[in-house]
Sequence to fold (346 residues):
Amino acid sequence: MELMEQLKNKIIETGKLLWDKGLVTGFNGNISARVDADTILITATGTCLGYLKPTDIVMLSLKTGDVIGEGKASSERFMHTEVYKNFPDIHAVVHTHPTYTNGFFLSNESLEPKTFEAKFYLGIVKSVPQSTPSVTAMEPVIKELKVSNIVALRNHGVVAMGKDLFYAFVLIQELEEQTKVELVDVHFKRKTMDVSGPPIKAFGGDNSMAVFKGDNSDKEAKKYKLFSKGQIEEIVRLVNGDAQMQELGVKTAMNMDLAVCLQETGDIYSFKFENGRITNTGKDSGAEFLITANEAIWRAVFNREIDPFVATTQKKMNLRGDFARISKWYAPCSRIFQLWTKVPVE
Fold:
């Protein structure tokens, strides 16, 4: 019972925080938290997240979708239960209708953050279309949540998931902030543009600081078996033959040992970098930096669906090593990941 009360208090605190920050209004939005493998707590239908009481939070069975005890669960209970069923390690889900985010996604399908911190935590945020007041088609939502912990629901709102409620709140807050930055950027571009100059791109257009944009010119490139000898050799060839990579490597004195690990098999592949050039490969499990992920996430990386930096901050990938230290090689690492996407997997 103590755990239950703690979770209820956390839900109440999160609702008040969302309300105070202007991320929910009226009776919109809903919050849930995992109790155990088979049970969640979720806000009741018709409640105001800014003024929740313990009685406004009900218990729900993940197996049956039925309320345990009294109360009527949120109309979005299907969305919440599907997220928990598909992501056993997720402990919190927050759904809101933030004003600027909703406005942005009325005319845009995705958002590329312009500031570095947002790039790390959000990556490219995508949206899925909605045709019903409550989410009833979860397949596209789940698909996007597999590569990002937050997704926009067009004409509806946003849903974020995480290890706890505060983390999910921060993702929603960060996304709302980035849509404001986008609006301000467009405003000042228009204000300072010479009247005879070219027209401004549409809201949500060009982003010169973009990190993880795959080059679509090689869509028909040969595909390799994941972490095969051929794939590793091709990665080395591309990295060592790329002039931009070599320039960045020398400029930042990129000298490090980086290894990647396939979670299902434990197979490790390591790369030794000297001034950004790969001088040796092997299977060194003692490399300074080790990135571990399951096959689905690695495939998403190589198929240009997820930024490895974002996957690391969202805990879809595990980084062993000092994140602050590897961050000083942010520019060459970003280039490496761009080059990796040129080696698509089967």
The chain has two domains: 2-184, 216-340. The chain has twelve helices and 14 strands.
